[in-house]
Amino acid sequence: MFLDVENPSLVEIHKAADYIFHVAEIAGWDHVGVDLDFDGTDNVPIDLEPKLATDEQIWKFAGENILRVWTEVESYSQVLKSAGEKPTEEIWLGRKWTREDLSMPFMFHDTKGN
C-alpha cells in the first residue's frame, strides 16, 4: 500500500503511482481511477508516464473509467425507477448519520478530520 502509516505526512506521489500500477496489474486498467476528492488530480498522469503507461491507460485512469461507471449507475437507476423503487433517502426513516472510522489510514494526514 502506498500509505505510510508511521509517517502519513511523508506520502510521495511515486508511491501512489506504484500502488495504482499494482492494482492495474491485478484488476486491469478498466478498474482503476482517481477518487473525486483526490488532491492534485491534474498532476497524476505526469508521474505515471515514466512507468510507461499508455495514453489509453492514463485516459481511463484520469476520468474515462469514472464516467463509464456513472453512466452504468444512472442506467441502473432508471431500471429501478421503472420498477417503482424509491431512492434510499425517501425510505430510510430514522437514520442516524455517523462519522467514518477515523482510525483507518488516510492518504493525506490532514484529511483525517477533527
Quick rundown:
The protein has one domain (8-112).
Describe the structure.
The chain has helices spanning 13-27, 44-48, 55-82, 88-91. The radius of gyration is 18 Å and the shape is flat. It has one domain (8-112). By secondary structure, it is mainly α. It has four helices and no strands. Keywords: Dipeptidase, Hydrolase, Metal-binding, Metalloprotease, Protease, Zinc. Hydrolyzes a wide range of dipeptides. It comes from [Emmonsia] crescens.
What is the fold's blueprint, element by element?
Elements: H1 13-27, H2 44-48, H3 55-82, H4 88-91
EC number: 3.4.13.19
Keywords: Dipeptidase, Hydrolase, Metal-binding, Metalloprotease, Protease, Zinc
Family: Belongs to the metallo-dependent hydrolases superfamily. Peptidase M19 family.
Distance between the termini: 24 Å
Q: Taking Cα atoms only, what radius of gyration do you get, to the nearest Å?
A: 18 Å
Q: Determine the fraction of residues in helical runs and give it as a percent range.
A: 40-55%
Number of domains: 1
**Count of individual helical segments:** 4
Percent range for β-strand residues: under 5%
Mean pLDDT: 71
Main sheet specs: none
- Tell me the total number of β-strands: 0
Shape: flat
Structural class: mainly alpha
Order of helices and strands: HHHH
Low-pLDDT regions: 107-114
GO molecular function: metal ion binding; metallodipeptidase activity
Keywords: Dipeptidase, Hydrolase, Metal-binding, Metalloprotease, Protease, Zinc
InterPro entries: Metal_Hydrolase (IPR032466), Pept_M19 (IPR008257)
Pfam family, one: Peptidase_M19
